[in-house]
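Readers outside the structure-tokenisation community will struggle with the description of the input data as it stands. What matters is that the chain and its backbone geometry are given together, residue for residue. For illustration, here is how one protein appears when written out as sequence plus structure tokens:

…
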Amino acid sequence: MVRMTLAHFFLAAGLVLAGPVAAADNAATRTVHALTVNNGTPKYGADFKQLDYVNPDAPKGGELKLDAIGGFDSLNPFIVKGEPAPGIGLIYQNLTSETLDDLNSEYGLIAQSIEVPDDLTWVAFTLRPQAHWNDGQPITADDVVWSFDTLKSKGDPTYRFYYANVERAEKLGERQVKFYFSGPRNRELPQIVGQLPVLPKHWWAGRDFEKTTLEPPLGSGPYRVKSVDANRSITYERVPDYWGKDVPTERGRYNFDTIRFDMYRDGTIAMAAFKAHQYDFRRENVSKSWATEYDFPAVRRGLVTKLALPEQRPAPMQAFVFNTQRPVFADRLVREAITYAFDFEWTNKNLFYGLYHRLTSYFTNTPYAATGLPTPDELKLLEPFRSQLPPELFTEPFALPRTDGSGQIRDNLKIARGLLEKAGCTIKDGRLVDPKGRPVEFEILLVQPEFERVIAPFQRNLERLGIHSRIRNVDSAQYQNRLRDFDYDMIVGGGPTVISPGNEQRELWSSLAADRPGSRNAARVKSPVVDALVDKVIAAPDQAALIAATRALDRVLLWNYYMLPQFHSDFDWIAYWNKFGRPAKSPIYGVDLFSWWVDPAKEAALRQGETQGKP
């Protein structure tokens, strides 16, 4: 399961309830402060006061300047239209909140308590009495019901998939709301509902929810929009009377008076701006930059800190994604052959400075990744579909092609040629053509010019097979439009970080999502086998069943070569100008920048150091 907020997927967890049983008439109902996936108790008990990785006495003040690539033309992130502004989630809140040291759990935020029956047919939330919008009006059950109904009927279509089995929301009282579920027992639905962004019904009255807007919306979060310069910058200011400042998951966080995002055309320009201290904090995701571009004077003088922080998150899939509904990629054998043309070992050695590991699963770094041969429990799920699956799935462990890193991949290309011949492809005038005589060629759509250097050696290997590929770099707005309309042959994409697989798999792989504009099924998978296994994942009654179903799904996805897996890092690479204070303890699953603060003494020393360093 992944956290879904603002029409995007974020870190989250699944559901098994933990907490004291309520002293109510119905003994099969629990009232809890948190929902967790680990069949035990959440990390934090019902009486916790703060997270372990915050400083509850952190000073407030100062400015945090950040970067973003591309542009934006809307402050409404809940619809498919427009490009939402970076950081807009800072003004909104959900019923529940996740933490970066307990990915298995979510804790009440707007919700003070959560009630769920053991049969998981509904969930009810009681809202905190102090929760209010930033105009002073209280957050009510009416707001929650309206938010659910509006997002499901008018929001990004992703919401309709995510809430497909949430039948309706009902107001029980001014601060109580109940959600009813349909379909088979679904262990994740209570937590999925907890991830609901709550929007102000009264503010949206008279406004068209389905249109883009640059009017600053009303929220209930720790920040509000201060100023907007579309496609250039947006600034948020801290809400001084933020109602949630003493909620345990919020205490000690959101310490900056203002947070500003400046937009840059691409990563190269953004890197130059960071060196000039046009913004304060940078998360690096390009290995070459990390290895070669952080030895500038400010780093050597101690004005900028560079850190590689180990992280333990599940690795999201990053891959060359085949649009399988394009004729060029319709044949699994062609997709498999193309996989043999990507030389990860050479690429990692020569382009990535050995900093990456190969992705070998859609669930890397989790117990859900398929390994070895199918287990008996997996076979029970796979056997009914044997005639529809590659026979190797049952007899061989899945393994991506490997090389010695020398760049000489003749053996792999020989295998690829055999696969292409088996698919009925032939060479004509030096070019590969399919059985209908059409050239086997495709376009790789990019929004990151920096990635061209990764693709160039891949293209050379493809040319040796007679396959012509070309790169098309477009701006972020055009890229998003083409993505929504599936107007591409191949992209660099993948899937989100998944803590506990579940309902989000329907959005990622189902046949229903394959033709829906804006869906996450970027490979446009249309497979009754995949559909059936996704249903098994969602309906898994316990952890053992979930592991078996997800591993079976993983095998089917891998052996069908819907994507060509790329690489991942075991570290968060960050650099920042030395003006910040940080909590003594860091979370194990990432960097919580919003638990940092501006240290006045460090900021003064930084200014002095920058002045002394100027010619």
